[in-house]
Design goal:
Blueprint (H helix, E strand, L loop, with lengths): L10 H10 L6 H12 L4 E4 L6 H12 L9 E4 L3 H14 L8 E4 L5 H9 L4 E4 L1 H9 L10 E4 L2 H6 L3 H8 L7 E6 L4 H10 L4 E4 L10 E7 L5 H10 L6 E4 L3 H13 L4 E4 L5 H12 L5 E4 L1 H4 L9 E4 L8 H6 L9 E7 L4 H11 L4 E3 L4 H18 L10 H8 L4 H20 L21 H4 L1 E6 L9 H12 L6 E6 L4 E6 L3 H8 L2 E3 L2 E2 L2 E3 L35 E2 L6 H4 L23
Parallel strand pairs: 1-6, 1-7, 2-4, 2-5, 3-4, 5-6, 8-13, 8-14, 9-11, 9-12, 10-11, 12-13
Antiparallel strand pairs: 15-17, 15-20, 16-17, 18-19, 18-21
The protein binds adenosine-5'-diphosphate and magnesium ion.
The site of adenosine-5'-diphosphate has 12 residues, from helix 3.
């Protein structure tokens, strides 16, 4: 019979196991513990909730670390504050007989100074939520440059909650040769992608049947003043140009009122409630199914019969009286293998209800900010641009073309684009130009509501004309930027690589240094082009190209041997215009300045 002893655990741990009353290892423990004890390997472990995953990674980590050292050797990332505390608690029990062990929990909603103090005493293991962890690394409060083991617990849930970029950034501060152990209940595409990007030939352990993405609904809440409810709804709709949604109100009256206001404001909306005749209801549902209506405002009773599969968002304009009803509402989205979002607009007096709902649905909410007017304008602009790019030409226009061309012939392409967007866009810009911030501070203790990344407020986002097609993954790009500018690894952040261009951030006061450093630098035979992403087009480019004879040092790249760049300073081939536009392929959507990497909150 398998026992904890035969799995290879040492006496100090067997003692703790006895104290806790665990008799036999669970299946995931049986499969995982010996493997992790015997090998230095990356691991993907799939098992349902409640199968004992904490012990499956906890014991091997505790047995492998050197408790006599004060260095942080293990990092565990988990999606919520509750889980973070739970894991910390469990690890302390597992290591109860291990002298000198210090496990510290790092999460939002509690004093960052207190947490920093605990870290300073020397924590061999840190259990953290991604948001706060990133903050503390950014402030130099935590050093994970020596960790040997990194656990991504409930990886599917972390990705559901939008932590991808935070995780990416955190891992960029950790050593390349650590072991990464990923635990997840499901294996959706996104998790597979993490495994592919951050792990090296991971071993795989599966307990029970592989479950592909059962948790398809993400839950978000937005805290606003009660009087701003309707404005908030409009912004949520405007920030999702392709929204196809059901909006829930509490009463028939509110349902009718909200639908009327939306229609008046130019949205494709309609009301669905019990005061309508059967015929009227049938008509509304038909328009909804055929997408003539994008926003269906409904009461709970009337929405019961909605069987539409592609609903992207459920918006709780008001929370239901019976919080159990929330499950029915959110169940309208995320159907038929699709993902969906359930959003709740709450006022201060209702925010505690979120906690009760979390208990019922057994999932955590993400506290999010209502997008600002400018963010919405950017979203809409780029949405329109990609729509134009994807539109097939309608040849019924052909006969009118000569006349139309005559009207517009005096304008070149650039001007036409500007004019076209101005026509389409004045409504949004005028409406949102002076739009106020609708968010109010959230004191509910939720992880994501605790201030976001202060750094990004004072940072600059750069565009650079190198990307994945140049063989550069984000880590390579970060290395390249660091090598050219001489900046430290914490001074270059939010690195996002696209196919043929990328973005990165630095502190605002590094602006001149970065621009100067890239002046005249080539990537192979191509001049590197770099500009502020928010001023793209407005300011023009920083011209590289003075003639230097100095040879630039070849870079070392951790990940990809082919990605080494032969940057050199030399005579620039051709004028700026020869590489202008080369960096960006047609149809590729440029980054929306200032929103990437902060999608979850700011
Ligand atoms: P998961 O991470 O898979 O959701 P947990 O690690 O949180 O599961 O474990 C669920 C519960 O089971 C915890 O209360 C834990 O203490 C308990 N548990 C774990 N392993 C065993 C075991 N081998 N025998 C008895 N109880 C266990
Ligand atoms: Mg767990």
């Amino acid at each position: 019979m398998t026992t904890f002893k035969t799995l290879g655990l040492e006496d100090v741990f067997l003692q703790a196991i006895q104290d806790m009353g665990f008799e036999t290892p669970s299946e995931v423990q049986e499969k995982t513990i010996p493997l992790l004890l015997q090998q230095e390997t990356d691991l993907v472990s799939l098992a349902q909730t409640g199968t004992g995953k904490t012990a499956a990674f906890g014991f091997p980590m505790l047995q492998k670390i050197r408790v006599e050292s004060r260095d942080t050797q293990g990092l565990i990332l988990s999606p919520t504050r509750e889980l973070c505390l739970q894991i910390t608690q469990e690890l302390k029990l597992y290591g109860a007989h291990l002298k000198g062990l210090n496990v510290v929990a790092i999460y939002g909603g509690a004093s960052i100074t207190d947490q920093a103090k605990k870290i300073k005493k020397g924590a061999q293991i840190i259990v953290a939520t991604p948001g706060r962890m990133k903050d503390m690394i950014g402030r130099g409060m935590i050093d994970i440059s020596k960790i040997e083991y990194c656990v991504l617990d409930e990886a599917d849930e972390m990705l559901n909650m939008g932590f991808y970029e935070d995780i990416t950034e955190i891992l960029s501060y950790s050593p390349e040769d650590k072991n990464t152990w990923l635990f997840s209940a499901t294996m959706p595409k996104e998790v597979a992608k993490i495994a592919q990007e951050f792990m090296h030939n991971p071993q795989e352990v599966t307990v029970g049947a592989k479950n592909v993405g059962a948790n398809s609904v993400t839950h978000e809440y937005y805290l606003v003043a009660a009087r701003d409810r309707y404005q908030a709804l409009k912004r949520l709709a405007d920030a999702h140009p392709d929204i196809f949604s059901v909006i829930f109100c509490r009463t028939k009256r509110d349902t009718q009122k909200v639908a009327e206001m939306l229609i008046e404001d130019g949205y494709n909306a309609a009301a669905l409630h019990g005061d309508l005749s059967q015929n009227q209801r049938d008509l509304v549902m038909k328009s909804f199914r055929t997408r003539q209506i994008q926003m269906l405002v409904a009461t709970d009773v009337a929405a019961r019969g909605i069987d539409v599969d592609d609903i992207t968002h459920v918006i709780n304009y008001q929370l239901p009286d019976e919080i159990e009803t929330y499950t029915h509402r959110s169940g309208r989205t995320g159907r038929a293998g699709k993902t969906g979002v359930s959003m709740v607009i709450v006022s201060k007096s209702e925010v505690r209800k979120i906690k009760s709902i979390e208990k019922i649905i057994q999932k955590s909410f993400v506290a999010k900010d209502i997008p600002s007017g400018m963010e919405i304008c950017e979203k809409q602009l780029f949405h329109l641009a990609s729509k134009v790019a994807e539109t097939e030409i309608n040849h019924e226009i052909d006969p009118y073309l000569p006349a139309i061309s005559q009207v517009l012939e005096q304008f070149d392409k650039d001007q036409l684009i500007k004019k076209f967007f101005s026509v389409e866009f004045s409504r949004f810009f005028n409406y949102y130009k002076k739009a106020k911030d609708l968010n109010i501070p959230d004191l509910s203790g939720s992880e994501s509501a605790t201030g976001g990344n202060k750094k990004s407020k004072y940072s600059i986002r750069f565009f650079i004309n190198l990307g994945r097609k140049d063989g550069l993954a984000w880590m390579d790009l970060k290395d390249l930027v660091r090598e050219v500018t001489g900046l430290g690894k914490e001074e270059v952040f939010h690195v996002d690589t696209m196919d043929s261009f990328s973005f990165f951030n630095t502190d605002q006061n590094q602006y001149d240094r970065v621009v100067k450093a890239f002046d005249g630098v080539f990537f192979h035979d191509r001049p590197i082009e770099i500009e502020r992403s928010d001023e793209r087009g407005r300011r023009g480019k920083f011209k590289s190209g003075k003639a230097f004879g100095k040879k630039f040092k070849k870079g070392k790249y951790k990940n990809d041997a082919d990605a080494s760049f032969s940057a050199k300073r030399g005579r620039k081939s051709g004028s700026t215009s020869t590489f202008k536009g080369k960096g960006r392929r047609r149809g590729e959507r440029p980054d929306v300045p200032g929103t990437r990497g902060k999608r979850r909150r700011r």
